[in-house]
What we know:
Elements: H1 22-35, H2 43-49, H3 55-65, H4 73-79, H5 85-98, H6 106-111, H7 119-129, H8 136-143, H9 149-162, H10 170-178, H11 182-189, H12 199-208, H13 213-226, H14 230-237, H15 243-256, H16 261-266, H17 273-286, H18 294-300, H19 306-320, H20 323-329, H21 335-348, H22 356-360, H23 370-387
Helix pairs in contact: 1-3, 2-3, 3-5, 4-5, 5-7, 7-9, 8-9, 9-11, 10-11, 11-13, 12-13, 13-15, 14-15, 15-17, 17-19, 18-19, 19-20, 19-21, 20-21, 21-23
Amino acid sequence: TAVAAKTYAPIPSGSRVKSHDSRVRCSAADGLREIGLKAKDAVPALIEALKDEQYKVRARAARALGQMGAQAVDALVGALKDEHKKVRKNAASALGEIGPQAKQAVPALIEVLGDEALGGSAAWALGNIGREIKEVVPALIEALESEDKGIRWDATRAIRQIGPKAERAVPILIECLRKGDALAASALAEMGTAATQAVPALFETLVEFPDMGGSSSIALGRIGRQAKEVIPALIEASTAEYPQVRYYAVEALGMIGAEAVDALIAALADGDTRVRAHAIEALGEVGPAAAKAKPRLVEALKDEKETIRSHATLAIGRIDTDVPALIRALDAKDWYVRWSAAEVLGKIGSQASQAVPAIRQLLNDEGPLVGHAAAEALAKIEADEQSHPPL
């Protein structure tokens, strides 16, 4: 019997954006967006579609132009004044997607930062476009004072994208931090040493806003990697009265690395199980530079808490590249320990070949990502064996 010929949908073209049916015009714009720069011949038609009588078509055309590069910028700047907020919002986002090539759009985007309908999108776009443009950061700082929460959020996110070059924003980010804004802590984390003045406020949030402690500890850890004067304050915080402060201080110290090993060893005696487990995990992540911690980690193998024992097994395996210890960690009750052990064994490669049977048993593990980590570990070990065959 004859087999029917397989048919394929035609690739959208500029001509379809001019269809009499608005649904076809919308669909064509979406298709061109997916194709991206390869559909640049359709840019004139998409620019024309920004004048379509249907706002949905105009909005879809604006989104598509965000994938077309610098040639679409002037038209998108014009679309920032469209009568419909969806079109304006999509135009701002599209300019952000174009990135630094859309630098001539910066004045227009700054002008609409106060527009509640698209101020957030404009802030995000400025973050993508304006890392090197001096007018951008002052405009974003002003947006941080907006009464609109969405605009403030997107302005903070844009400052986070810009990083150390937005150092002038640190004082107002500190104000936001003291009001419980976790994203402000995230933005400060990207500043490095430029955000050293925020360290006292970051410590305050560990006590005042426990729910955002993770964001603050990450910021402290990242700042501390470069600004070594932060380390003594973190060590002091690791012995604070409140367990959550100690927990997050230990997390930050773990990010700093070898210089924090003594403080992390001291945290192994903490009365809080979570703090001890975090200190053990951090020592494991430091790796061979934490070798002096091994005797204490061996002691932790006798801890009454299973989570402490399993984390200690994993840490010893990481510090010593101890394959038998890592194989034992594959059997831990804590899925995170099993996942981490599989990841480390995969990085060890062919020298971990004795772990292959135990890793295979995790391929159908119920823990999040454990099966995937096991499959990747097996693939890495096999690839390493093939590239380094036995003599």
